[in-house]
Amino acid sequence: MNTYPDPDLLHPDSIAPEIHQRNAQIAKAMAALPEWWVIGPPAFRKNQRDGAGVFPPMVFSERATTRTIESKAGPLRLREFLPSTGQPRGVYLHLHGGGWVIGGADMQDTMLLTLADHAQVAVVSVHYRLAPEHRYPAAPDDCETAALWLVEHAAALYGSGQLIIGGESAGAHLSAVTLLRLRQRLGFCPFSGANFNFGLFDMTLTPSARAFGDERLFLRTIDMIQFRDAFLPGEHKLRDPDISPLYGELQNLCPALFTIGTRDALLDDSLFMHARWLAAGNKGQLDVYPGAPHAFFRLGDAHTQSAMTQQIQFICSHLK
Questions:
Q1: Where are the domains of the chain?
Q2: Over the Cα atoms of the chain, what is R_g?
Q3: Is it the case that residue 2 has pLDDT exceeding 60?
Q4: What φ, ψ does residue 94 adopt, rounded to 5°?
Q5: CATH number belonging to the domain at 2-317, selected among 3.30.365.10, 3.90.1150.30, 3.40.50.1820, 3.30.300.160
Q6: 298 vs 57, more confident
Q7: CA distance 57 to 45
Q8: Most exposed of 64, 72, 174, 185 (fewest Cβ within 10 Å)?
Q9: Over the stretch 233-282, which tens digit does the pLDDT of each residue have?
């Protein structure tokens, strides 16, 4: 791991040979997998949970509890983790990835437990509604509801009103949208930090997203187009900040950590959003991992370990 803006990080020579080999193996293994839009989201989601892919089967922690809160659309479930020892120093609102179509709040328990125990936070992950069964604005509405609920109840329920927000991929997108919505609704940003992991921030597709091509390294150009089309019904202004937060007014928001790999189709999304975050007067850190693909946290390699350490340090440094 190194910290941008060292230009050497973005050069192909920065990628270790073993990372090249690992990426080639991933792409080869994924080439045989069915496309979610061919077999349908329900079947693909079941395959994910059963471990029918390049990742091992899901680990569902017995330490997790479920809380249900009310929303305009009906009951909204939250998956909670408390640190193994001690009082939480704050609350981490987690929004999962999966292109707004797949994934779930219970599909990264190991990562969330690590954050809970090592950053000493209560973790609240949102079971937001998924597309195409529930299209925009269902997912952003659910995330906004959960965030507003935490603003009101975190201190009483978890012993701390300090809030961090974050997520992966579509979850990073939803985190940025939620921050913009809450600042507009409340007149201020109630979060102390934002943890953006390989997020998509521009629905028109940044140059790296358009140019990535067909190599099946977790996320290709066609994947982003299919996810976007499932998420957004009919005609939408793709540069609406509620859809593409890169185009929002980003002033008066919290410090943010952007994490991205150079073999991720969403590389430019993080580069561009980080630059706009700083230009708006906010503090921002951009960590770039040479050769790391999209969703590399699931690979359990040295990049994963370094990124987890950085996230823990970031969360801890923004809790009083």
A1: 2-317
A2: 18
A3: no
A4: -105, 135
A5: 3.40.50.1820
A6: 298
A7: 12
A8: 72
A9: 877 799 999 999 999 999 999 999 999 999 999 999 999 999 999 999 99
Asked if residues 162 and 89 have their Cβ atoms less than 8 Å apart, the reply is yes
pTM: 0.96
Q: Is the dihedral of CA 41, 43, 45, 47 positive or negative?
A: negative
φ/ψ region of 29 (left if φ > 0, alpha if ψ in -120 to 50, else beta) reads alpha
- Spell out the long-range contacts of 108-111 with Cβ–Cβ below 8 A and sequence spacing 24 or more: 108/168, 108/297, 109/58, 109/59, 109/60, 109/61, 109/64, 109/81, 110/59, 110/61, 111/297, 111/308
Question: Per-residue confidence at 4, pLDDT binned at 50, 70, 90?
Answer: low
Listed as own residue / partner, the contacts of 86-89 with beta carbons closer than 8 Å and 24 or more positions apart are 86/120, 87/120, 87/159, 87/160, 88/120, 88/121, 88/122, 88/158, 88/159, 88/160, 89/119, 89/120, 89/121, 89/160, 89/162, 89/316, 89/319
Q: How far apart are alpha carbons 80 and 67 in whole angstroms? A: 7
Q: How far is CA 120 from CA 105, 157, 192, in A?
A: 19, 15, 15
